[in-house]
Amino acid sequence: MSLRASTTNRYAFSFLTLISRIKNQKSSLSTFTFQIPYANQDRFTEPTTSPSQSPEKPHLVPADNMITKPSFGNSRLFDQRPFSDIVLSNKMITQYIRAGDLNVALRVFQNMTVKTTVTWNSILAGYTKKPGKLKEARHLFDQIPQPDTVSFNTMLACYFHNSDIKTARIFFDRMPVKDSASWNTMISGLSHVGKMAEAREIFSIMPEKNSVSWSAMVSGYIEAGDLDSAVDLFQRAPVKSVVAWTAMITGFMRFGKIAMAENLFKEMPMRNLVTWNSMISGYVENCQAEDGLNLFRTMVEDGVKPNPSSFSSVLLGCSNLSALALGKQVHQLICKSPLHLDTTVGTSLLSMYCKCGDLEDARKLFFEMPKKDEVTWNAMISGYAQHGSGEEAICLFDEMRDKGTKPNWITFVAVLSACNHAGLVDLGVQYFDSMARDYGLEAKPDHYTCMVDLLGRAGLLVEAVDLINKMPFKPHSAIFGTLLGACRIHKNLELAEFAAKNLLNLDPTSSAGYVQLANIYAAMNRWDHVARVRQSMKNKKVVKTPGYSWIEVKSVVHEFRSGDRVHPDLASIHEKLNALEKKMKLAGYVPDLEFALHDVGEEQKEQILLRHSEKLAIALGLINLPIGTPIRVFKNLRVCGDCHRATKYISAIEGREIIVRDTTRFHHFRNGICSCGDYCFCLLRRQINDIRSEDYALWLHSANSAFAHRRHESWDKKSSMFRIGDRLEEDNQEMTLEEYQKVLGREEEGFASTKG
């Protein structure tokens, strides 16, 4: 399919028409009656309030029957003022508990002259919401003068929230009175940790099952991945709650049964926001983002107000479609909603801009956000990494630490990725080593994959294999795929065959493994080996993932495949490319026939290269997008070396900024230079042919040292290296390491004198 205009027009609607449907709401700390479905306790006396007794008639507790007062610091308002109004005090405690401020709630509690069971239960519920407070919660529970069923249920929930499943079961069995909430708490708690056999046992002996019981079991089976059992229980349920319906929709979407989820959604007698969100996120996760965007529009038109999850899903859909224009419309919608300052929504917006190639707007949004959490910092660092801005990524990482936000394992994936894309080998190794030493973080497979890619691209293939052998867990297929890609860059056939063998042993259906190996053979003109690999794919029914590129023009996504023959504008596209080819060759461009992986003549290979999908998409952008507008092209596979080289020439000839995103990163082409500095293709090493492997490692160390010591200076040694490489390429010259270092020294001296 070459043109998705008909499909895309279904989601190319204007979100601006929906803005008026979302009205501003004032968020305030409102009072509420605290009800918790879970309960726990170690007090096994008969409760003074029966299950049928209303908690609105609490038992009064004298002021002298209080727990030992803890120290809360200096607080004149709470430490020196007695609270005699029971109703008002209970409301205050509830408000602070709801806001997550347990300390202030405890101060109010401590200064109450009279306490009711409701008061004690509210504080106990506050402890339940705080992980790691099990000991304090149990101590408080033991001091409740007359605990009721809510007290027991809340304590039971506290055990589950602190993962003390064994004690929770003992506590439940010894409870003097159990109501439906007690049983449901056990079922939900066991289901949450995947103990479905025990949950089913409790469910089977439960005296009276209600909709909550059935919903908890259905949800538990869905979370455990047992769709058949979930369907069986759902069909048998006498009363199906919205929760159960929504759980089933989530399950069908998770297993890719989209049609069944759609049918269930249509049959639902009543939907809530969670139901809508499940459908929208399900569409997005199943690569049907257009349908997710359409459903989001329908939801808003029906008067359902989006929450952070809604916006996160729809923005992820925009990211997957690379639909920046639609993402900006969603941004305008958010600005008119009460969630415009929400950190989760802001982070989703930030991620959308990064993934759609608009790093500048992402940067502006990041610095304007009033509150940032670790996810926000990670998103921005990852964005810099994707766009090849290694220096900015590492500087932001430093700022993150300086401002007291603790990095997590995802942070280091982003940092290592930034070092990888910038070719900062030494710094990458330092950060990798610092994870366990300085932060107590254990390296995960993703970190090892980044390191193998970092070492492999730098030509340190032996070191990459050594790292794989030292991994504390069994290597996964992705790490061998990464090694195989590095072997292709450096034409190391022996290691390539080793990597491909291990990759295909772990994942026999991996088309990427076969294709990469075939490409290496093709680059070395071993066409008999290429035929053998392709025959093996055919015998094992492995289908190659087709490569395609797409570009958004006026809210319509145009998709191209290599050698496309069906796009309606192909005539003008080919005319544009033919004209560009002549200009590029006059400027010194020579097609890299190594990337024409067919056993045909040179002229045919040149035509094949000229019809690559990314070149077709770029040509369409040049024809249709106004001058001054960046051209953003996206590809589902890695951009080939010839297209990368050609795009540099096109950006200079046309005077246009061209942004290309492939599976690994963004490439920003301006005035004939790419932001990656050609490091992704290790072209500089090919140009400096006299550098031996050990000298090349020394050269890389020099680049890393320059970066480390000049992080905040405008002179970029790495950029100078690539400028020298470009000049060598233009003059078709070679250079020894000693000569190269002298030229680099002159560049640095020139910068110093200019700065002075």
UniProtKB/TrEMBL annotation:
- Alphabetically ordered keywords of this record: Repeat
Q: Which residues form a coiled coil?
A: none
What ranges does the record list as Polar residues composition bias? Answer: 46-55
Q: Which residues form the DYW domain?
A: 588-679
Segments passing through the bilayer = none
Q: Does the keyword Cell wall biogenesis/degradation apply?
A: no
| Database matches in InterPro entries | DYW_dom (IPR032867), E_motif (IPR046848), PPR_At4g14850-like_plant (IPR046960), PPR_rpt (IPR002885), TPR-like_helical_dom_sf (IPR011990)
For this entry, the protein name equals: DYW domain-containing protein
State the PPR repeat positions.
Answer: 116-151, 179-213, 241-271, 272-306, 342-372, 373-407
Q: So which domain of life are we looking at?
A: Eukaryota
Q: Which NCBIfam families match?
A: PPR (TIGR00756)
Q: Name one GO molecular function term.
A: RNA binding
Q: Which GO terms describe its biological process?
A: RNA modification
Q: Where is this region: Disordered?
A: 43-65
